[in-house]
């Protein structure tokens, strides 16, 4: 069975985006410089490459509408993977007509995760977006978190875990330390839904 994994870059003070939805720094992409210095994807080696390979090996993506629209639905697929967008509203024209691998799921994150797991087969489900991660934790359908903690303090913006309904116990699975980021992988031991 597939594992659902949140992949997120985060500042040391817990932010995943600045107030303007950019990722910090003068060029607006500080939180992603560990894999895309200057906004350009780099050839990664060693432990950071392992993290990116794992993310790229996922079989499907679950994301929130805000993230999907900010990224223009990654052009209709994310590396050839189907995208399931959790939303309370139907999709706009681009996602409805131009992106056959994008499915809007209006009956909740648990349904989106179920559909993504079916599409992924035995591959993992890549989870995107802060609010979607919070919903997935609350519903008990997020299995693991892969956080790239970037050595910067943004001082404000959008936090990853502002709205959890209860305490969530995590188990450390792996820590990979690189000069650009510390990659922390956690397994959800007791989800908020059962806490």
> Overall pLDDT, averaged?
88
Strand % is 25-35%
Q: Which stretches of 5+ consecutive residues score pLDDT under 50?
A: none
Span of the ends, CA to CA = 24 Å
Q: In terms of structural class, how would the helical and strand content be classed?
A: alpha/beta
Largest sheet: 8 strands, mixed
**Adjacency order of strands in the biggest sheet:** 5-4-3-6-1-7-10-9
Please bin the fraction of helical residues: 10-25%
Radius of gyration over all CA atoms, rounded: 16 Å
Which descriptors apply to this entry?
single chain; 195 residues; alpha/beta; two-stranded antiparallel ribbon
How would you summarize what this structure contains?
With 195 residues, the protein is α/β, with parallel strands linked by helices. The protein has helices at residues 46-56, 65-70, 93-98, 109-120, 130-139, and strands at residues 4-11, 15-17, 60-64, 83-86, 102-105, 125-127, 144-150, 158-159, 169-177, 182-190.
Protein model, in words:
This protein is α/β, with parallel strands linked by helices. About 25% of the residues lie in helices and about 30% in strands. The strands form 2 sheets. Strands 5-4-3-6-1-7-10-9 form an 8-stranded mixed sheet, sandwiched between helices. Strands 2-8 form a two-stranded antiparallel sheet. It is globular and about 40 Å long.
């Amino acid at each position: 069975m597939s594992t659902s994994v949140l992949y997120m870059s985060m500042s040391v003070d817990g932010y995943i985006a600045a107030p303007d939805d950019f990722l910090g720094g003068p060029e607006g992409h500080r939180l992603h410089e560990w894999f895309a210095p200057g906004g350009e994807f780099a050839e990664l080696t060693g432990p950071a490459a392992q993290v990116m390979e794992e993310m790229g090996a996922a079989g499907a993506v679950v994301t929130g509408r805000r993230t999907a629209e900010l990224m223009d639905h990654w052009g209709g697929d994310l590396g050839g993977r189907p995208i399931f967008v959790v939303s309370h509203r139907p999709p706009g024209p681009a996602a409805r007509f131009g992106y056959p691998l994008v499915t809007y799921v209006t009956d909740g994150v648990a349904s989106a995760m179920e559909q993504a797991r079916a599409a992924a087969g035995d591959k993992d489900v890549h989870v995107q977006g802060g609010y979607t991660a919070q919903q997935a934790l609350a519903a008990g359908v997020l299995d693991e978190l892969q956080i790239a903690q970037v050595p910067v303090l943004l001082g404000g913006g959008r936090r990853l875990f502002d709205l959890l309904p209860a305490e969530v116990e995590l188990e450390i699975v792996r820590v990979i330390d690189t000069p650009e980021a510390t990659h922390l992988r956690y397994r959800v031991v007791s989800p908020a839904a059962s806490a």
